[in-house]
Each structure stands twice: as structure tokens, then as C-alpha cells.
Amino acid sequence: MAAPMARVLAAGSSALRRRFASSARHDDAKEAVKWERITYAGIAVCTVLAIYNLSKGHQHFPDPPPYPYMHIRNKDFPWVSLTTCATRS
Fold first, then answer.
1. Could you report the per-residue pLDDT of 25-58, keeping only the tens digit for each?
2. Contact between 38 and 45 (Cβ < 8 Å)
3. Are 44 and 36 a contacting pair, CB within 8 Å?
4. What percentage of the chain's residues is helix, strand, coil (to nearest 5)?
5. Are 28 and 21 in contact (CB under 8 A)?
């Protein structure tokens, strides 16, 4: 009884072996290195483009016209200006 059971376990062990990859190719490491290099090149390109775009000046929009419905208060503040307080002493 022990001999047939050992034979079944020995034959089934190769079938029960766990596969961690979807393919059994040997060049998977080369493929991983290739995509790692492509990723680093893409990071470098994106960084250079971001620096270029951020270094350019941006447009300034003109001031909006003074619409009467905005109720902007142009009165002076009721407290003393901080610049006059500093120059008094």
C-alpha cells in the first residue's frame, strides 16, 4: 500500500508544482530590465518637459472692468496705517 501511494505522490508532485509566472520563458529577466529602462527614460522625458513648461512665463489677464453691481468699498480703513505707526517713533 505504501509503494503505490509513494508512486502517486512522486508523479503528482511535478503537476502540483506551483507556477509563479504566466510563461516559462527564460528571458523574463531581460524583459523586466527592458521595461525598467523604458520607465526611467519616460520619467526623465516627463521631468524635462515639466521643467520646460514651468520655466516659461505665463500670461497675465487684464483687470476686469469696474462693474457697478460688485459693490466694492473703496473707503479707508478705520484704523491707523501700519506704516504711519512705524514712522511715528
1. 668 889 999 999 999 999 999 999 999 999 998 8
2. no
3. no
4. 60, 0, 40
5. yes
State the Rg of the chain over Cα. 37
Residue with cell 512705524: 86
Residue carrying C-alpha cell 484704523:
79
From start to end of 27-75, where are the E strands? Answer: none
- Average pLDDT score, the chain: 76
Q: What is the pTM of this model?
A: 0.41
Report the SS3 class of residue 21. Answer: coil
Q: Domain extents for the chain? A: 27-52
Which residues in 4-35 are b (16+ Cβ under 10 Å) and which e? eeeeeeeeeeeeeeeeeeeeeeeeeeeeeeee
